Amino acid sequence: MSKFIDYLQTKTFRKNLIIATGSILLFLIVIFYSLGFYTHHGEGMPVPKLKGLSIEKAVELLEGKGLRYQINDSIYLIDQAPGLVVEQDPDPNTNVKSNRTIYLIITRDAPNIKFPDIQGRTFLEVRSILNNYQLKVGDTTYKSDVAKDVILEAMFGGNIISKGQSIPKGSSINLVLGDGLGASEVDIPNLLGLDLSEARMALLGSSLTLGTVSFEGIQDSINAKVIKQFPAISDTLSKVSIGTPIDVVLGGGN
After folding, report:
1. Which of 22, 160, 194, 222 would be a feasible disulfide site paired with 199, CB 3.0-4.6 Å?
2. Residue 164 contacts by C-beta under 8 Å, 6 or more apart in sequence?
């Protein structure tokens, strides 16, 4: 033991210790700089901001910077067109090396749903139902009908849509509602060519009354036919209120 202690105090030991220590430090320095050179330590580029871009534009931007991409997932977002980048990893401005893969999440087409039953329901009910199905209320128009503010028809893409039909989620639905005037207005019947008895029955069936009866150039009123009526059916007038009197002119009974 005393010999070992004596050796530790020798000049040879101190020299060997210094050489060993220096070798270890030199080895660590070489390893450190070699790793830095191999991994391109300190080199890189900031990741561009891709959120909101179309996938085509994002890919073009990434490839132009020598970066790769991978679509990790796709989600549906209402009011967002399909194919837009909504998330990215790494985040924008993160420093990465060339050929790094950037992971993306993009929007996809709206899934189809079954159209709900809204026929005969009020506008307020239908608005709530459509909202629950993630559908939107489009244009609303009114049509003569007894029921007021009740849905008569639902339109999508210019066509009537009914319960159970497939439709993309988020679509706008145009609605046709009753104006509540159907009970007070009726179509004007065409009385031309009818005799007086037939004209009276036609008016009765339409909940209208016979007004003034006049004759024009006839001698035999029995065979006379209606040649004029007031009001008459026209492009601007096709309905009148219930009970409206219709005047007629009879002729052609010679």
Report:
1. 194
2. 114, 115
